[in-house]
Amino acid sequence: MTTPLGHVSWLDLLDIILVASILYRIILLIKGTIAIRLLTVLTVLFLLFVASQLLGFQTLYWILDDFFGAILLVLVIVFQHDIRRALSSMGRGGFGRDRGDGVSELVEELITSADMMAKRRIGALIVLEREVDVENYLEVGTEIDAKVTSEIITSIFLPYSPIHDGAVIIQKGKLTKAGCFLPLSRNPDLSKTLGTRHRAAIGLTEVTDAVVLVVSEETGGISLAHGGKITSGLDQGGLRKALKRLIPLTQHGWFT
What we know:
The protein is 50% helix and 16% strand. It has 256 residues and is an alpha+beta fold. It has two domains: 10-91, no CATH class; 100-246, YojJ-like (1 (3-Layer(aba) Sandwich), CATH 3.40.1700. A seven-stranded mixed β-sheet has the order 2-4-3-1-5-6-7, sandwiched between helices. Strand 5 (211-215) and strand 6 (222-226) form a beta hairpin. The longest helix has 23 residues, at 33-55.
């Protein structure tokens, strides 16, 4: 039974806020950046729902009331694959298992390769996929299935390598693709001094939650992009700290 218009109690509001908070946590758990966008839409719709109750917009209230009544079913349909993956991970004890050793090994290999390439002024672009699938944003690319090592990464980006152009992709702790081209950022506020690699790194992180490591061919500088922003001039210590922060120790789907 719906609450009469204009008679929304504090208990009703608390009930709705509690449900919204639980949904927010669940969505963040299973979908990363996409969940944030969906949460923004749901928040706007929720505010419209409350406003329609208070202002007596009966048609809008009726439509949104039906929508929120079916929201759980909508979320299950949209995120069915991610829910299945999350439940599977829970069944294996995935959320509680410490993957610190795997993360540390990966980070050290990335740092070693970045340092080697920076000293030799070899340009590089390395994508670390997190929760959001990057496949739909990649062009071209050569399939690879290899353990991440500094030797392999460095050899890929050597100027005479046939796949040195583009980016390498790391998914679930493994090197899966090379020679991939990323979407360039169209942000007009970016510095004109940023080259194509840096704009590609920022571009991908604007549409996914990926982390992208960049080595500049011109300066030998090391940068890290995430969330549409880029941090330049990183040394080994700064890069290590940033990577370990951005690759959670219990990141589900990694090192399985």
